[in-house]
Design brief:
about 850 residues, alpha+beta, 32 helices, about 40% helix
């Protein structure tokens, strides 16, 4: 009994100790909390009582880097100094402060962020690219009447922000851009307004020395998106930009906000979810007016950077292909300008084209100083019609007429381009032109040859093109070039509205991704498909010969002709390999006709097998993505019927009926055949590897920010063609004869070239007034294929310069690491 009482006492003492411990712990926690509230954060909570508040603000995560296949950076984040405005700082005479700040920045050649969606120069125009929703939202943000024109909006903003009448339009536009940005922050003054990105040390020093003159300005570091290769990758990479209302509706569930950037095009858009990191947060203290007071340290969440995307593209191969294409276009233009080719044109034609295409900037002329050459041109324009000062198109028409009537000279136009910064005087061409030492014709040709005036700027045929290079043993795209291109650096960080509108109005359509969005008739590059169909279906054998009679009459009128002698000549007896060598149309008319009543069905089956009826598979937008309503995308009876019904309100029976003539013309790449350069490169890759059709792709792998592998692309085989070895041998031999045969159509272009290339060229006439499109396809090396290539140059057929094969050779040489200046280099030295 005594022991029981002792145990009970011990238990009660133990419970008492525990209770005392708990009380002490709670008291200790209370003391800590009181210390935090009264000592550590006493001042903060005192301010909180006096009207301050906490705001959670986002800390943007670093976007992932995009690399080429060898780890060369293609899209990076560049941390640099930026000049920003603090909306919470009240400033007397704000307009003067902003004007002085702009002067300092411009003196140091800094690029000022201009977000005003109205052109500064007269006549004022909106820069919304026709987007009514963007215009409506901006007017709502700025409390402007929805019915206001650009001119009325500009004038109203000048009045609202009390800009002086003696400020010129260009300066006014920059001040208004900053005033509008500050105005939009009126309810969130803790969010700064960026004035200039990536500023120099010189600018930093000036602003620090003159800090008291700019009380609302401060310097901080910001992460900017940068594309080191610029124009070479714009169509593949795309760019990022501010999220739109429509995008926000779709992405709000993923944590996006109105201030976020998002991929707008290309890989930036396709891999947005991978590249975008997870934003962090921090807490700031603001007063009752929304002004930032302080940042709360050690609070919030750190941002997580996005993942890195590695592409299949070879950046240096891409660059070489672009430069080679531009060089080839330049050579053709110069050849046509100097009278060395058909479809030639004059110096006057070039100047007129540059006026019409706005590559001699009419708005710059209308806003120029009177004592310049542009000022003299402006004076002439206004002397013809004073209302032209506010009518750009009218002014352009007067300038064009004035040039045609010799009231304005070519020399004046070139000097105007110099004053506009479009060309330089580094070679003293402008100096010589001004002194009369050279003519405007000589100056123009010199500037074209140096490519200060590019094929894009002349807008003369040919001024566009595309090149695609694929790995034949996988779906890897090694290069995909569009010419002309644009600089996607102009569309990130501070979106250059005026630059974007100029791109939209450029007649050479530089924003079109031509390898995937511009189809053209393939011409004779299609003939290998007809050859494969004929050989596989037993219509011919490898040694079957057909005599070329020049004009093929069996399919009815209009008669189809072989190209040699315009139907009156003959290639004699040729087999399938020889027919490819000399590109004998008659041979392929015959084999297609001999396939019988279901000939087009048989051809269509092989066209589909080689991928002509499908998208290539790449992750970015391509034309076929928008052709879902089409019953097919190849030359076929159903395609012809569909197009006829779209084109004509009441198509006739002949418009809808498929004929034998349609079939034989399909067999040589005409009729309704239209394919992109990417589609052709994929078809050639499938042929070169023996019949394995891979899905094309740009992504190679994805890693996290520390380089750890997250995912890697695995090749997808879309179809495995069962082609006989004899079929492949006959076609390969024919393509090799094209470049190496005694009668090969490209034997001169590839004479002494150190790599055997299996190729086929083609032409297609679209307009009687313009030259044919020129198309080239190939795989190399012939003995062991590694790459396929396609080159497509609209209106570029030019016998004396052979632009497409010239481009292809440059690209193949780069891939094979050749020194093409060394003649007769043996292939044995080229083992990779």
């Amino acid at each position: 009994m005594k022991e029981l009482l002792q145990n009970i006492t011990k238990l009660e003492n133990y419970r008492l100790y525990v209770m005392h411990g708990v009380i002490l712990l709670l008291f200790f926690i209370l003391v800590l909390k009181l210390f935090s509230l009264q000592i550590a954060k006493g001042e903060y909570f005192s301010q909180e009582v006096n009207g301050t508040a906490l705001r959670e603000v986002e800390v943007e995560a670093a976007r992932g880097t995009i690399y080429d296949r060898y780890g060369r950076p293609l899209a990076i984040n560049n941390t640099a100094y930026a000049v920003s405005l603090d909306p919470s700082v009240g400033v007397d005479n704000l307009n003067k402060v902003l004007s002085d700040l702009i002067d300092v920045l411009e003196k140091n050649d800094e690029k000022i962020v201009e977000t005003l969606p109205i052109t500064s120069s007269l006549p004022h125009e909106f820069l919304f690219d026709g987007s009514e929703s963007q215009e409506k939202r901006w007017k709502e943000d700025m409390n402007l009447d929805q019915s206001y024109t650009a001119e009325q909006c500009f004038n109203e903003l000048e009045k609202r922000f009390e800009l002086s009448d003696d400020i010129d339009n260009e300066k006014a536009g920059k001040i208004l851009a900053l005033r509008c940005a500050l105005y939009k922050r009126r309810y969130s003054k803790y969010i700064p307004v960026t004035v200039a990105y990536n500023v120099s040390e010189k600018t930093l020093t000036t602003l620090r020395e003159q800090g008291s003159s700019f009380p609302c300005a401060f310097i901080d570091t910001q992460s900017n998106r940068e594309y080191p290769y610029g124009k070479y990758f714009s169509h593949i990479l795309g760019y990022i930009g501010n999220i739109t209302d429509e995008e926000l509706k779709e992405k709000s569930k993923d944590g996006y906000s109105i201030n976020d950037n998002i991929g707008k095009d290309g890989i930036e858009k396709a891999y947005e979810d991978d590249l975008r990191g997870t934003d962090g947060s921090q807490y700031i203290e603001v007063d009752s007016s929304g002004r930032r007071i302080s940042t709360i340290e050690n609070e919030g969440v750190s941002p997580s950077p996005g993942n890195n995307v590695y592409l299949t593209i070879d950046a240096e191969l891409q660059k070489k292909a672009y430069d080679a294409l531009e060089d080839a276009l330049t050579e053709v233009q110069l050849d046509r300008l100097t009278g060395g080719a058909d479809y030639g044109y004059s110096v006057s034609d070039v100047f007129e084209s540059m006026i019409e295409s706005n590559n001699i900037r009419i708005k710059n002329i209308l806003n120029s100083a009177d004592d310049t050459t542009q000022g003299k041109i402006k004076s002439y324009i206004l002397s013809q019609d004073e209302n032209a000062a506010s009518d750009v198109e009218k002014a352009r028409e007067i300038l064009l007429t004035g040039y045609k009537q010799n009231a304005i000279s070519g020399s004046q136009l070139l000097i105007a381009m110099y004053e506009q910064g479009l060309i330089t005087d580094d070679d003293e061409i402008i100096t010589k032109l001004k002194s009369g030492a050279i003519s405007s014709s000589t100056a123009l040709i010199s500037k074209m040859r140096s490519q200060e005036i590019t094929p894009q700027m002349t807008a003369m045929d040919p001024c566009t093109g595309s090149v695609v290079v694929n790995d034949v043993n996988s779906g890897d795209v090694l290069a995909a070039v569009t010419y002309p291109s644009y600089d996607n650096n102009e569309l990130v960080n501070s979106f250059n509205n005026e630059y974007y509108i100029n791109l939209q109005n450029d007649p050479t359509t530089p924003m079109v991704n031509r390898p995937y969005q511009e189809p053209r008739a393939p011409g004779s590059t299609f003939k290998m498909i007809t050859a494969a169909a004929a050989l596989e279906e037993g219509i011919i054998g490898p040694n079957t010969t057909i005599y070329d009679e020049g004009t093929f009459t069996e399919a009815g009128k209009p008669y189809a002709r072989c190209w040699i002698g315009s139907g009156s000549g003959s290639h004699g007896y040729v087999n399938v390999s020889e027919a490819l060598e000399v590109s004998c149309n008659y041979f392929f008319y015959t084999v297609a006709y001999n396939m019988g009543s279901d000939a087009i069905t048989k051809l269509n089956n092989y066209m589909r097998a080689f991928g002509l009826d499908n998208p290539t598979g790449v992750e970015i937008y391509e034309l076929y993505d928008s052709m879902t309503d089409y019953p097919s995308r190849i030359s076929s009876p159903e395609y012809k019927e569909y197009v006829a019904k779209q084109r004509y309100e009441n198509p006739t029976a002949s418009d809808l009926r498929w004929t034998a003539g349609d079939t034989i013309r399909t067999a040589i790449g005409q009729s309704s055949n239209n394919y992109t350069a990417a589609t052709l490169a994929k078809y050639i890759a499938t042929l070169a590897n023996g019949g394995t059709r891979y899905k094309n792709h740009f992504m190679s792998k994805i890693t996290d920010s520390n380089g750890n592998l997250l995912s890697e692309y695995e090749d997808v085989i879309e179809e495995q063609l069962s082609l006989k070895e004899s079929t492949l041998d006959a076609i390969f031999e024919g393509m090799n004869l094209v470049t190496n045969g005694e009668k090969g159509t490209l034997r001169n272009s590839f004479k002494d070239y150190p790599v055997n290339v299996a190729a086929k060229s083609g032409t297609a006439q679209e307009s009687q007034k313009r030259s044919e499109h020129t198309i080239f396809v190939a795989f190399a090396p012939y003995e062991s294929p590694e790459i396929s290539i396609s080159v497509l140059i609209p209106y570029g057929n030019n016998a004396s310069t052979a632009p497409a094969p010239t481009v292809a050779k440059e690209v193949i040489s780069k891939y094979m690491q050749l020194d093409t200046t060394v003649e007769n280099r043996s292939y044995d030295a080229l083992v990779r």
